Amino acid sequence: MRGRASSLLLVVGLAVLGARPSHALVWPDVAERVELDLHSPDAGTRKAAARALGQLGPTRGGPLALEALGDADDDVKLAAADAAIRLRASGATDAVAAWLNAQDA
User: Fold this and answer.
1) Residue 34 and residue 50: Cα distance in Å, rounded?
2) Longest Cα pair distance anywhere in the chain, in angstroms?
3) What is the pLDDT of residues 2-22, one digit of tens each?
4) What is the pLDDT confidence band of residue 23, given thresholds at 50, 70 and 90?
């Protein structure tokens, strides 16, 4: 669990520093694939999709990042939190703040 705590600190640190991504042109089929992969039964596929959210831009990626913050897998949640920070997705802080009261560190 120590690695996850470090990851959470990294995500919070990036938020404090105000990390800004650069958004390149993304084909619509890429966004659709990422959205489909976020609903995959395979946690690895969902994690990869959450990592790709940042390249979708705030309009498409932001809401998907918020949705992925509720994933059952912690690694997917952390990847989604990173994307939410980079995309400046409103509502992400409230979703992540609930993690601070979680039973499992």
Assistant:
1) 8
2) 41
3) 566 555 555 555 554 444 444
4) very low
Q: Which two tokens stand for residue 22?
A: 């650069």
Instruction: Return the number of other C-beta atoms located less than 10 Å from residue 49's C-beta.
Output: 24
Amino acid at 105: A
**How far separated are the first and last CA of the chain, in Å rounded?**
7
Could you tell me if 35 and 102 are in contact, meaning their C-beta atoms sit under 8 angstroms apart? no
Report the predicted TM-score, pTM, of the whole model to 2 decimal places.
Answer: 0.69
**Is the separation of the CB atoms in 104 and 1 below 8 Å?**
yes
List, as own/partner pairs, every contact residues 87-90 make where C-beta atoms lie below 8 angstroms and the sequence separation is at least 24, other chains included. 87/21, 87/53, 87/54, 87/56, 87/57, 87/58, 87/61, 87/62, 88/58, 88/62, 89/58, 89/61, 89/62, 89/63, 89/65, 90/62
Q: Which amino acid is at 91?
A: G
What is d(CA 41, CA 19) in angstroms, rounded to the nearest whole number?
A: 31
